[in-house]
Design brief:
Chain B: One of its GO terms (cellular component) is membrane. Chain B: Keywords: ATP-binding, Nucleotide-binding, Phosphate transport, Transport. Chain B: One of its GO terms (biological process) is phosphate ion transmembrane transport. The complex is a heterodimer. Chain A is mostly helical. Chain A has a single domain, classed as Phosphate transport system protein phou homolog 2, domain 2 (Methane Monooxygenase Hydroxylase, Chain G, domain 1, Up-down Bundle). Chain A is built from six helices and no strands. In chain A, helix 4 runs antiparallel to helix 5. Chain B is of the alpha/beta class. Chain B has eleven helices and ten strands. In chain B, helix 5 packs across helix 7 and helix 7 runs parallel beside helix 8. Classes of the chains: A mainly alpha, B alpha/beta. Chains A and B meet through helix 3 of A and helix 9 of B.
Chain lengths: ~220, ~250
């Protein structure tokens, strides 16, 4: 028997996935905007950020309503809780993408540092891929994929450390690089944080499947920052 | 871990040819609340009634298996049903006060047992009504008819009537299904107070009631015990799909 709850849950699920796709696009575009130093595209992303926040609020309200009206238990409850928690992670990931767009504008025409440029490009590629994959893992309720994504997050953290080391090295060699290098540092940190939030979504996918609340990558960059 | 006060082993019950309980193994440790849930006709009320031999009165009933209360076989030929029902009391779905005063309702069991000491009876009436959380509401009307009370008050007087004979186990068969939400929550609060001193077994169709008050929940279906566990586990992560489907409202 199909319950009214199932229809509403399917709708909630679709809205959540849609928000995920939006965040995923924003991350992709903000990385592109930074790599191309495209201030126009970056500004557009900043202006659109409220869309993500509005979707987060709408999804939260819907989950509260469903909890109050249906009093879900077991798997039903886990589905709702997963969405409720994961939308916050998506929204925060969106905030960091917006920061990357800000950095694109701030960097302007300052001189690029090839070694850092390369590292950031790699981090951007990994972050956008992670975001796309976590949505697939969510849609397929794929616990295995969720666990594998945590490995990419560790790779991101290593790259983040590399960016940090190289930035300080550049600043030491040539103090005129200071402003530029500090922007690389910020972008690297933002991308690394996006990886952390995606990893948190992975944890909620595992919870959805197993009922276990676990910590993937407990000593991740989020605690060092 | 407190010891087991009531044990059921391979319990079968037949109404004529029909097998209503198909080999129930379920034990109860001393104190706390266990809720029995399941769809209508699943056998949970039948099972509850076997625990103080209420099914004895129904013709054509055959029971096999063993129920032991503190190690004593409840269905042994020597077992005394009056004594059993004193130690294992029952509260029913419809509040069923006798058409006497509140006072006489509460002391009914003691009076039958021959207790005449007025002072002792007074004390039992107050203590039982207090335990049933209805004392403050009825203390000035103890000699008025219990039938004049509201449904929720009547049900708490019925609980007091069971408590007055100092039972160890209290069985309740959907005790709030005939009551409004306010009275129901008063009964629930009463049971939560009693769970420290009594072993309480409650049949309920109200799943939220089970999740609110029961320490343990047992799920019955088609005459079988499907699963019993801590209430938290049953409602968060049951082991059996049938349990999950039932408590999530996926029927049929």
């Amino acid at each position: 028997m199909r319950r009214l709850f199932d229809d509403e849950l399917a709708e909630l699920d679709a809205d959540f996935t849609e928000m995920g796709m939006l965040v995923s696009e924003v991350i992709q575009q903000s990385v592109d905007a930074f790599m191309n130093r495209d201030a126009v595209a970056a500004q557009k992303l900043i202006d659109q950020d409220h869309q993500i926040n509005e979707r987060e609020i709408a999804l939260e309200q819907k989950t509260f309503e469903m909890i109050a009206l249906y009093q879900p238990v077991t798997t039903d409850l886990r589905e709702i809780v997963t969405i409720l928690k994961a939308v916050s992670e998506l929204e925060r990931a969106g905030d960091h993408a917006r920061n990357v767009a800000h950095s694109a504008i701030k960097f302007g025409t300052k001189q690029k540092i090839p070694v850092l440029e390369q590292l950031i490009a790699e981090m951007g590629r990994l972050t956008t891929q992670m975001m796309k994959d976590v949505l697939t893992a969510y849609v397929n309720k794929d616990e295995h994929e969720a666990r594998e994504l945590a490995d990419i997050d560790r790779k991101l953290d290593r790259l983040n450390h590399q960016v940090r080391a190289d930035s300080y090295e550049q600043m030491r060699q040539d103090p005129s690089f200071e402003t530029g290098a500090s922007i690389y540092l910020n972008v690297s940190q933002d991308l690394s944080r996006i990886g952390d939030y995606v990893t948190n979504v992975c944890e909620w996918i595992i919870y959805l499947k197993s009922g276990q609340i676990i910590e993937l990558n407990s000593a991740s960059s989020g605690t060092e920052g | 871990m407190s010891e087991e006060i009531l044990t059921t082993q391979d319990l079968h019950l037949y109404y004529g040819e029909k097998e209503a309980l198909k080999g129930i193994n379920l034990n109860f440790t001393d104190k706390g609340i266990t809720a029995l849930i399941g769809p209508s006709g699943c056998g949970k009320s039948t099972y509850l009634r076997t625990l103080n031999r209420m099914n004895d009165l129904i013709p054509n009933v055959t029971i096999t298996g063993t129920i032991k209360f503190k190690g004593q076989d409840l269905y042994a030929p020597s077992a005394d049903t009056v004594q059993i029902r004193k130690e294992i009391g029952m509260v029913f779905q419809q509040p069923n006060p006798f058409p006497f005063s509140i006072y006489d309702n509460v002391i009914y069991g003691l009076r039958i047992a021959g207790e005449k000491d007025k002072e002792k009876l007074d004390a039992v009436v107050e203590k039982s009504l207090r335990q049933a959380a209805v004392w403050d509401e009825v203390k000035d009307h103890l000699h008025e008819s219990a039938l004049a009370l509201s449904g929720g008050q009547q049900q708490r007087v019925c609980i007091a009537r069971v408590l007055a004979v100092s039972p160890e186990i209290i069985l309740l068969d959907e005790p709030t299904s005939a009551l409004d939400p306010v009275s129901s929550s008063q009964i629930e609060a009463t049971l939560l107070n009693l769970r420290h001193d009594y072993t309480i077994i409650i049949v309920t169709h109200n799943l939220q009631q089970a999740s609110r008050i029961a320490d343990r929940t047992a799920f019955f279906m088609n005459g079988e015990l499907i699963e019993v566990d801590q209430t938290k586990n049953i409602f968060m992560n049951p082991a059996q799909k049938q349990t999950e489907d039932y408590i999530s409202g996926r029927f049929g």
